[in-house]
Write a structure and sequence with these properties.
Elements: E1 2-5, H1 15-24, E2 29-32, H2 39-56, E3 59-63, H3 66-72, E4 76-79, H4 81-86, E5 95-100, H5 103-111, E6 116-120, H6 135-145, E7 150-153, H7 161-165, E8 171-174, H8 176-180, H9 184-195
Parallel strand pairs: 1-2, 1-8, 2-3, 3-4, 4-5, 5-6, 6-7, 7-8
Length: 196
């Protein structure tokens, strides 16, 4: 299972064109994670990205803005643990995910109704510059602690995906390379094949 996480600031091309290339490669999902946008701007972008994802039959996961998910009657929403703790489930949201950074948070997310957790960061990554990675042992502990799918995030690519999956993780989330690589199809295909 591969989820491509967006970051339009990394794109060297038109953002929606990059989303189209990613969606054509058929990852499990695209997560629209544009944390600098206010709610109206995020909603506008979400509507545009949803059209692209729908065209290629790829799930769009909204990030952070539950109000946008409710307004769009969207079924997939991903939250931080602080947001998950105060979230009141709406009928439209069927699959809820959460980002976790400890075994305790993973267990809490499961108890709060998360359908999956994203655990990280596993390897050194520019997104978390200066913060030591939590590593594979942490990932394995999270996988053993919960009865729901665990996805790894942070510095994951073709060279280390097999070690990630060996911990029991169901797949990974990728951001930087998904937004910048010259051939998204080849990149996503390589990760997807390893995940099967």
């Amino acid at each position: 299972m591969v989820i491509c996480v967006t970051d339009r600031k990394l794109c060297q091309e038109d953002f929606l064109h990059r989303i189209q290339k990613v969606a054509q490669a058929k990852p499990y999902a695209v997560m629209l994670r544009e944390k600098d946008l206010d709610l109206p701007a995020y909603e506008r972008l979400a509507c545009q990205v949803k059209k692209v994802c729908d065209r290629y039959g790829v799930i769009l996961i909204l990030h952070r803005y539950s109000a946008v998910a409710i307004k769009m009657q969207h079924q997939h929403l991903h939250l931080s643990m602080p947001d998950l703790r105060v979230y009141r489930r709406e009928a439209s949201v069927i699959q809820l995910g959460a980002s976790v950074h400890s075994v305790e948070e993973a267990r809490e997310a499961e108890a709060l109704g998360a359908a999956y957790v994203v655990a990280g960061h596993i390897y050194t990554t520019d997104c978390k510059r200066g913060i030591p990675p939590r590593g594979l042992f942490f990932l394995e502990e999270v996988c053993q602690a919960v009865d729901l799918p665990v996805l790894a995030i942070g510095g994951i690519g073709r060279n280390n995906i097999r070690q990630v999956l060996a911990t029991g993780a169901q797949g990974c989330c990728v951001r930087s390379e998904a937004m910048t690589c010259s051939d998204p199809a080849a990149f996503i295909q390589a990760l997807s094949v390893s995940s099967k």
